[in-house]
Design a protein that fits this description.
By secondary structure, this protein is mainly β. Helices cover 0% and strands 49% of the residues. It is built from no helices and 11 strands. Strands 2, 4, 5, 6, 9, 10 and 11 form a 7-stranded mixed sheet that branches. Strands 1-3-8-7 form a 4-stranded antiparallel sheet, with no helix packed on it.
């Protein structure tokens, strides 16, 4: 059984940093593309960042470039989203996702497995 478990969310002030972690089990982590998405009430889940299984290429949504960084440790089955210079508009539930061969990393459709999400709240 595949499980993705996110951690590290919380309540912070604008300008602060948070480090989200996602630990996977039940899959060959190194063979999966990993992504982070976020969602606010009434809106669709949106892409934040992704890390390719091969080559380690990373991708970011324009609104997080220069502030967020994604990294993965295949020995620990973990992908991390380092979030710096947080803004109130970053407030959302953040989800970790895994897919074996994701064509468009920015789309939710390519990901087979999802975590339960972790709440990030940024106060002004």
């Amino acid at each position: 059984q595949v499980r993705l478990v996110e951690s590290g969310g919380g309540l912070v002030q604008a300008g602060d940093s948070l480090r989200l972690s996602c630990t996977a089990s039940g899959l060959s982590f190194g063979m999966y593309d990993m992504g982070w998405f976020r969602q606010t009430p009434g809106k669709e889940r949106e892409f934040v960042a992704a890390s390719r299984r091969i080559g380690g290429n990373t991708f970011y949504a324009d609104f997080v470039k220069g502030r967020f960084s994604i990294s993965r440790d295949n020995t620990k089955n973990t992908v991390v989203l380092q979030m710096n210079m947080l803004k109130p508009e970053d407030t959302a539930v953040y989800y970790c996702a895994a897919g074996p061969r994701v064509v468009f990393v920015q789309s939710t459709r390519g990901y087979q497995h999802w975590g339960q999400g972790t709440q990030v709240t940024v106060s002004s």
